Amino acid sequence: AIVITEQPVSVSVPVGYSFTLRCRAEGRTSLQYQWFCQHQSVCCQIPGATKQDLPITAQQTQLYTCRINDLYKNAVFSDWVKVEVHQCVARGLPPRLWRGEPVIVLNPTEQRVEVGKPLQLQCAAMGVPAPSYQWYRNGNLLEHQKKKKLWITHAKVSDSGTYLCCASNSHGEHWTSAVDIHIGETLPPAEHLQLCHLVFPSATGKIALLVGNNRYQHHPNLMAPVTDVFELSLLLEQLGFQVVSLLD
């Protein structure tokens, strides 16, 4: 009659990050603990890992479980948990005072996909515990897309739109960048070339619209947009564009 009262939890952390996996159980006699890890289908006992807490310094992605047994040779295993280790993290992440809130380390990318072809979008986030994921298209929740990878086997025109993903855990949430996905028929090379000849000679002028937003309702005021719009205006005018600049 061994009852696990606290299961270990999966985490997603940068390489070199130190943390602790915890397991707690209750039984009629004193209990003994033994941790195991699995990497690339090879499972092995961790020498000396015989306490409730397992300190880890993340080096590679592995699975972990804890075996608890009593003096009567009864034994139970905890849930398997994943320690996902990110080898390449953008400079400055995570912050020094990181407490495990989600931090996006991989954003999806814009794509153009032919009708009937597979569509795959991918993101990744660090977090303690490991974040859960939810994808959205045009602001609408996609009920069955709850993994790091969004997969549509046969893309339809109706799958076009703006996609983004929310990574969340008990400490908060973080959103990926929004990306535009275009689903449509691809013109044969000859027809594409003919279309280019029809369209581009008819263009008589080049107009650039620049919009710089400084003030946001839920974000501190920004300073860079003013400078960015000014610099880009000069550059585009040198390239022959008629420039319209707007602020806020």
From TrEMBL:
Coiled coil: none annotated. Keywords: Disulfide bond, Immunoglobulin domain. Pfam families: Ig_3 (PF13927), Peptidase_C14 (PF00656). SUPFAM superfamilies: Caspase-like, Immunoglobulin. Residues 204-248 form the Caspase family p20 domain. One of its GO terms (biological process) is proteolysis. It comes from the Eukaryota. GO terms for molecular function: cysteine-type endopeptidase activity. Residues 1-78, 102-182 form the Ig-like domain. The keyword Ion transport does not apply. This is MALT1 protein. The gene is Malt1_1.
